[in-house]
Amino acid sequence: MQELALKISEEELDQFLKVIIKVYRFDFSSYSRESLKRRVNRVLALEKFPSIAELQYQVISDPDYFSHFVEELTVNVTEMFRNPAFFRALKEEVFPKLAQQKFIRIWHAGCSTGEEVYSLAILLQEANLLERSLLYGTDLNPQVLHKAKSGLFHISTLRTYSENYIQSGGQSSLSEYYTVRYGQALFKEELRRKMVYSVHNLATDQSFNEFNLILCRNVLIYFNRDLQDKVFGLFTQSLPNGGFLALGAKETLQHSNFKDYYTYLNKQERIWLKL
Known about the structure:
Layout: H1 10-24, H2 33-46, H3 52-61, H4 63-73, H5 84-98, E1 104-109, H6 115-126, E2 133-139, H7 142-150, E3 152-154, H8 158-167, E4 178-181, E5 184-187, H9 189-192, E6 195-199, E7 213-216, H10 225-238, E8 244-247, E9 262-266, E10 271-274
Parallel strand pairs: 1-2, 1-7, 2-6, 7-8
Antiparallel strand pairs: 3-5, 4-5, 8-10, 9-10
Helix pairs in contact: 1-3, 3-4
């Protein structure tokens, strides 16, 4: 007789989230319920926990396992120059405005393993803007930030990344920006020294600086409407008038309480200008 797959109930999920808040002060309660349930159920199936209680015990008693669990719970799908048309729009429509600033601060919220931060740094370098820029990459998952800081990416990904780079309007060859070591590409120090990576939870943490450009792509789709609005408030607080906000293809300000603070710069690529 086939054994039924273990599934977490709404009540069990509520209790689990409360325990995580109490022990680690990580609050996932405003994340999309269906997305959370799918990913917890995936952990239960892959790691063959006999009960929800066993998973909960493992999470609260082992901080290293909790870090692993957060990595499984959060979605880390990214690549360099993902959606080349978006990066071309940044280069052609946003960079000329950024060039008017003496110093440029950019925040990539939910940066995952950093591929898009490196993409932006390369285009800034080619526009002669990197030297007066500082890029902040944040994520709630310290494991992915460790990878981002290293600047190491597997060479198997580089063909796709190189194609994306050319389509984004790259002026050279992507290979100019890295050296290959033991099957991995190490991106140049001149890019990495302009980056600051730190843990930041969009659900609970506050603004930490003023930025000329904020990117948060394909993160908000995993939040409920109230949390999305809270995050838009955080971004609005962090942008001066004339600053830019870039979102993912399925994300919009149109239903937010903060929509009147912005106008579209590029509707197709989801880039807004703060008024």
